[in-house]
Design brief:
Radius of gyration: 20 Å
Order of helices and strands: EEEHEEHEEHEEEEEHEEHHHH
Number of domains: 1
Largest sheet: 4 strands, mixed
Structural class: alpha+beta
Distance between the termini: 33 Å
Length: 268
């Protein structure tokens, strides 16, 4: 769940210091996208801390693509092209922009574009789940440089040493994301096993005349998908994957809107 994406030319709550606000920080390639400092959330270190009601989405300003889970495809397909990246493993992505470091869905004030679906990967921040090697134990961690924590008791992380409702909600959201990610990985493995993915690229010319080449991603081949054996089709339907495939197909209609947004940014 790192920052890998298309190339562009042109459970428990565990143990864990407040840092500065990193909303405009560039991603660290050694950590998952957005995260700069990951520490376990602990009652001793965070006992007097409160969760801010909002930190905005400035931390995503330089993200041109984010991980997308399969159960998000239907909503995301209304706004973003959905593609797949194969490095280091098959992962679906929602494309947010046409150039590296540019998120076209983020407004100058750090808020997301109105009436647009915000991917769960983005909404999860600053929290993230750490799993043990045997995948049996889960620890809630957070990016302490996010600016999400403050002194006070308005929305405490812990009450009398026990996780608050806000913290339990964060844990549950991260746990659900983890489960959805694993289910989506199974879907991706099947796409590869059945040879349904094909490399693709987009050659785009903006109204200003600037030419962009977006490459390094894959899409599901419609012809190969149509040839899926009946037994596999029924199995995929049972798992809900058929809807994911059609949402992926529909999402390709968002390329023109993305180009228009990029052109508007370029001429603004």
């Amino acid at each position: 769940m790192g920052s890998t994406g298309p190339s562009f030319t042109s459970g428990q709550i565990g143990d864990g210091a407040d840092g500065g606000n990193s909303q405009d920080a560039r991603p660290d390639p050694q950590l998952p996208l957005f995260y700069r400092s990951i520490s376990a959330v602990d009652a001793i270190r965070h006992g007097g801390k409160s969760l801010r009601r909002s930190i905005g989405f400035g931390f995503a300003r330089h993200a041109h693509a984010v991980v997308l889970n399969g159960n998000e495809f239907e909503l995301a397909s209304r706004h973003y092209p959905i593609v797949f990246t194969s490095q280091p493993q098959i992962v679906p992505l929602a494309l947010l922009g046409l150039k590296p470091g540019q998120n076209l869905f983020l407004r100058p004030d750090g808020e997301w574009r109105p009436s647009t679906y915000v991917p769960a990967y983005v909404r999860r921040y600053p929290f993230i789940l750490h799993t043990s090697a045997d995948n049996q134990q889960f620890t809630l961690c957070a990016d302490e440089s996010s600016g999400a924590f403050e002194d006070g008791a308005e929305r405490p992380l812990f009450i009398e040493g026990k996780p608050s409702e806000a913290l339990r909600s964060a844990f549950n959201f991260c746990a659900a994301f983890h489960n959805d990610f694993n289910a989506t990985r199974e879907f991706g493995d099947q796409l590869v096993e059945r040879g349904l993915l094909v490399p693709n690229q987009a050659e785009i010319t903006l109204g200003s005349g600037e030419k962009l080449a977006v490459s390094g991603f894959e899409v599901i081949d419609r012809g190969r998908f149509s040839g899926l054996p009946d037994s596999a089709f029924l199995e995929w339907r049972r798992k809900g994957w058929i809807g994911w495939v059609y949402a992926h197909f529909l999402s390709q209609g968002n390329w023109p809107a993305l180009v228009d947004m990029a052109a508007g940014t370029a001429t603004a």
